[in-house]
Structure formats: structure tokens, C-alpha cells
Amino acid sequence: MSLHTRRMSGQHVLLLGSALVLLSLLNASARGAYGISVADIARTLWALASGGLDGSPEQLVFLNIRLPRLFLGLAAGAGLGLSGALMQGLFRNPLADPGLIGVSSGAALAAGITIVLGSRFFPDLPRSLGSWTLVATAFAGSLSVTALIYMLAQSDGGTRVGLMLLAGVAINALAGAGLGGLSFLASDEQLRSLQFWLLGSLGGARWSAVVLVCTIVLIAACAGATCARPLNAIALGEAQAVLLGVDVERTKRLAIGVTALAVGAVTATTGMIGFVGLLAPHCVRLVAGPDHRVVLPGSAMLGAALVLLADSVARTAVQPAELPLGVLTALVGVPFFLVLLRQFKGRV
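Predicted structure:
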């Protein structure tokens, strides 16, 4: 049997991805410190649609606590998975992830500065932004660092992917040093807040943030979908892509912009959630092949399912405490990733 016949068709991959997302949603809806049965979930949704809510504990927990968390997990996983697929396609490297261009580290550094030094140097920020202070500064930090790396990668009227990679490594190292210095300066309370944010969580989900992140990720997904055919051509080499009529520079700018928007919005609201952007695209590529028309939506679906599954474990494994989501995605994702590499090493 040839390699291509053993791979799943694009339609089957997308159907499987949709099923995984639905199962992950159902599992995450039912599990938690306050268990809710599938029947109660169905009744709550029916009551919400028909206007017959009665204020029962199951309805209050599901609608006010669990549902915004589910939507935030969907958006976060989809944004990270999509961004990882774009970066792997742009760099033509299955080991690439959104962290390469400094989006996450820029958000982390800005959040750290806000937590540790904000009250001292920016006393008016909380009054002007309210509860959005940390989200706004982290998002601004991610976009600023991405813009800086993009400018550093400009050479001879084009964007050098190699220069972008080197600039991203340098900025990530600088951000790590900055966070280390902030940890040294922070008080015990500030250090705890900083570490909790860096480890990632969906616990701060609220409807205003959910609407914002879902909107940004949806826009990013629509824009990223237009990169599918150009990335297929770029996989043959930039020179070949130009001969095929692809505007390589426009594709680079769009892929970088989509990644900065999606990962910046996700990181600003959930903190650092690692490994999803690396694992999801690679798994889709192993079973479906390199066609970005399948890899991009498939990675978004698998990323959403992974985050929802990880969050349901994080909420229930050590009740009543909650495991850091970013730590859990790495602990669960790394062994799974290594098993996949061993099983499908002939396809990598």
C-alpha cells in the first residue's frame, strides 16, 4: 500500500476533527468540581432556547461559569492550532510554532511588567482600563514584539525567514531575561500572580473577554484560510512559488499578522499555553498530508479539542485545586507527540 493511499482524505479529516471537538465540548461541559449530567446540559440548553430558565444550580453553573470557559477554550485552541500550522508552513519546518516570532514572549513580558511595575510606573492604567489592564498590555506587547521582529527581518525589499527566526530567538531570550529580573523584583503576591499567568489557565473566562477573543480568532481564521494555496506553493520553494504566480511577500505578511493577532489575543486572556501550536498541525499533517487546505482547518479543530480536553483534566485531577493548563498540555502532549513520531516516523 502506498503512502498516499494510507492517508485519510481531507473530508474525512475534517469530519473527524468536528467529531473530536463535539466530544471534547460534551466532556468538558459535564466534568468539573460541580458535575453536570448530559441530560441536565440538554435541558439547560433547551430552556435557554425556549426562555424557560428556572435558575437551578445546574443552569447557573453551566451558563455562568462553564459555558464561557468552553467558548474561551475553543477559541484559544483554534487560534493556537491555526497559528502553528501557518508558522510550520511559512518556515517549512514541522518543528516551528508561534513562539518562534515572539508573540507569546512579548505578551508575557508586557504582562510581567504590568503585574510587577504597573502600580509604580503606570498608576493611571487600572483606572482607565479597569479589569482589561492586563489583557490590553499583554496584547499590545505581543503585537509590538512581532512588529519589531518583522522589521528586523526585512532585507533587500523582502522578508528573510531565516532572519526572522534568528530575531525571534534573540527576542525570546531577552524576554526570558526580563521575566527573570521581574521575578527577582516581585513581591510574594506579585510573583504568585506572575507565575499563575505564565502557566496558563481558562479560569478567568468572562463573557466580555470571550466575545473579544472569539471575534479576533474568527477573523484570523478567515484571513488565514486565504494562505492555504500560497503556502502549498511555498512548500516547493519561494522561487517556484513566484513562478506559479504567488505573491510570497504578501503571504508572509498575512501569515505573520494572523499569527500575531490570534496568539496575542489568546495569550493575553489565558496566559501561556504551550505545545498546542506544535502538536496539532503535526498530527493533522501525519494523517492527512501536507495540503494546507486541510491542515489549517484541521489544526484549528484539533487545537480546540486538545485545549478543551486538557482543561477538563486540569479542573478535575486535583480537586478542589486546579492544575496549570500550560503545564498539563506539555506533560500530556510531549509523550503523545513522541508516540506519534515513532508510529508515523516513515511519514515525517
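Summary: Residues 102 and 170 are 9 Å apart (CA to CA).
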